[in-house]
Amino acid sequence: MQTDISKNVAQQVSKRMPAVESPLTDFFRKFRRQRAGVFASIVVGMLVLVACIGPYIAPYDPTAPDYDAILAQPSAEHWAGTDQFGRDILSRIIYGARISLSVGLISVFTGAMIGIFFGLTCGYYGGKYDSLVMRACDILLAFPGILLAIAVVAILGPGLFNVIVAVAIFTIPVFIRIVRGNTLVLKNMTYIEAARAMGIRDFTIIAKHIFPGTLSVVSVYFTMTTGTAILIASSLSFLGISGDPSLPEWGAMLSSSRDFLATASHVVLFPGLAIFITCLSFNLLGDAIRDALDRKIKD
C-alpha cells in the first residue's frame, strides 16, 4: 500500500515538473523567434550556396566583354545590365560572392584563431605576458579599422592575400579582448580550482574546461565581424589597393563603374546592394545569435 502511494506521488511530481531542454534545443527555440535573424540566416545560406555553385548558375562569363551591349540597362537578357565593357553585372556579382565571402570568412577565421589563443593564455596566466599582449591590442585598436588595413596593405603590397592578412590583423585584438574577459571569469570558478588541485595540466584545463565556455561569445563576434571584414575588404578594393581591378569583386566593381553613376546608375546599384545586403545579413544574424544565447532573456 505504501509502495503504491509513493509511486502515485512520484508520478504526480514528475508530471508537474517541466521538461529539461538541452542547451542546443533551447538555443534553436529562441533563435526561431528572432524573425530578422531567421531571414538573415536564409540570406547568408543563399549567399554561401551562390558562392559555391556560382560557375554553374552564372548566365555569362564574368570577364568576357561584349562591345555591342556596353552599359545596357537591365533587361530580360541581362537582368542587372552590363558595365562599361559589356560584361554581365549579374554574373560578376555571382562570381564576386565567392571572392568577398572567402576574404571575409578566411580573414575572420584566421584572426579568431590567433585571438582565441592569445586571449586564453593571457587571461589564464596573466602577469607581464598579459600586459604586453594587451598593450599591443591597445595600439592596434587605436587605429580605425580601414586605416589599419590600408597601412598593412601599403607595407605588404597589393594583392588579395595581403588584403586577407590586413583584415585578419584588424580582427585579432577584438577576439583577444573578448576571450580574455571570459577566461578571467572562468578561471576563478570552483571546478577550475578543483581541476588545478587534482594536478591536471594547464593545457588540458584551458582546452577542455575554459575554451568551450568562450565559444558562445566567439560565435556572436565571429558572425558580426565577418560583415565588417567584407565591408573593409570591399573598401580596399574600391580604393584600388587589393590587386587586379578586373577581378569580379564587389568593391572593385564599384570603383571601376563610379564614373558612370549619372548615365548608368545600375552599374553601381547592384554591386552596392550586394555589399549592403551581405553586411546587413551577417550583422542581423549575429544579433539573433547573441539574443538566443543570452540566458537573461526570458521566454
Q: How would you portray this structure in words?
A:
There is one protein chain. The protein has 299 residues and is mostly helical. It has eleven helices and no strands. The protein has helices at 2-16, 23-32, 35-57, 89-125, 127-141, 145-156, 160-186, 190-197, 202-238, 250-257, 266-293. Helix 2 (23-32) crosses helix 11. The mean pLDDT is 83.
Describe the SSE topology:
Layout: H1 2-16, H2 23-32, H3 35-57, H4 89-125, H5 127-141, H6 145-156, H7 160-186, H8 190-197, H9 202-238, H10 250-257, H11 266-293
Helix pairs in contact: 2-11, 3-4, 3-11, 4-5, 4-7, 4-9, 4-11, 5-7, 6-7, 7-9, 9-10, 9-11, 10-11
Structural features:
299 residues, mainly alpha, 74% helix
How far apart the termini lie comes to 42 Å
The beta-strand count equals 0
Radius of gyration: 25 Å
Content-based structural category: mainly alpha
State the major sheet: none
Percent strand equals under 5%
Shape call: elongated
Provide the succession of SSEs.
Answer: HHHHHHHHHHH
Q: How much is the average pLDDT? A: 83
Low-confidence stretches: none
Helix content: over 70%
Q: Treating each run of at least 4 consecutive H or I residues as one helix, how many helices?
A: 11
In short:
The protein is 74% helix and 0% strand. It has helices spanning 2-16, 23-32, 35-57, 89-125, 127-141, 145-156, 160-186, 190-197, 202-238, 250-257, 266-293.
